[in-house]
Specification:
By secondary structure, the protein is α+β, with helices and mostly antiparallel strands. Helix content is about 30%, strand content about 30%. Strands 1-2-3-4-5 form a five-stranded mixed β-sheet, sandwiched between helices. Strand 3 and strand 4 form a beta hairpin.
Length: about 150
């Protein structure tokens, strides 16, 4: 990012309000619930398999990436899955998303992951530009009450 001081760092408990504000901006299948976020945030921070990174331009939070790792038979080892990537609109196209993904990839590689994967409907061009290849269709089934 030109004329900026972009930093990528792990999110902390003190970043809850910041990450909640960013998460509320994410195009989602479910409405954002601060109560559900407040229940999930400490669990994400405590989970060894989770990685939550925050992008900050000087003192301004501009985005985050949330992903998890798990073993997979098809990969003969660990894989990492990006659940969420959000960059504020005014920072898109300026390198914040690329920096978040590169930091997540370094984290995954450092933990022995063999690949990073994700699902997207709107950002295929972005992911292709940073070296991702289309691999499979994404199917889903909503379970239970989606409002809780």
């Amino acid at each position: 990012m030109q004329d900026s001081q972009l930093g990528i760092r792990p999110a902390t408990a003190g970043d809850a309000d910041t990450v909640a504000g960013l998460a509320a901006e994410l195009a989602q299948s479910f409405p954002f619930s601060r109560a559900a976020f407040d229940r999930s945030y400490p669990a994400v921070l405590a989970a060894e398999e989770a990685c939550l990174l925050l992008a900050v331009d000087q003192a301004t939070p501009v985005g985050y990436v949330l992903g998890f790792q798990h073993p997979a038979f098809f990969a003969s080892g660990q894989v990492a899955w990006v659940e969420e990537l959000l960059v504020r609109p005014e920072y898109r196209g300026r390198g914040a998303g690329r920096a978040l993904m590169l930091a997540f990839e370094r984290h995954a590689a450092g933990r022995g992951c063999r690949l990073v994967a994700l699902a997207t409907r709107r950002a295929a061009a972005f992911y292709q530009a940073i070296g991702y290849q289309e691999s499979a269709a994404y199917f889903r089934k909503v379970l239970g009450d989606a409002q809780t």
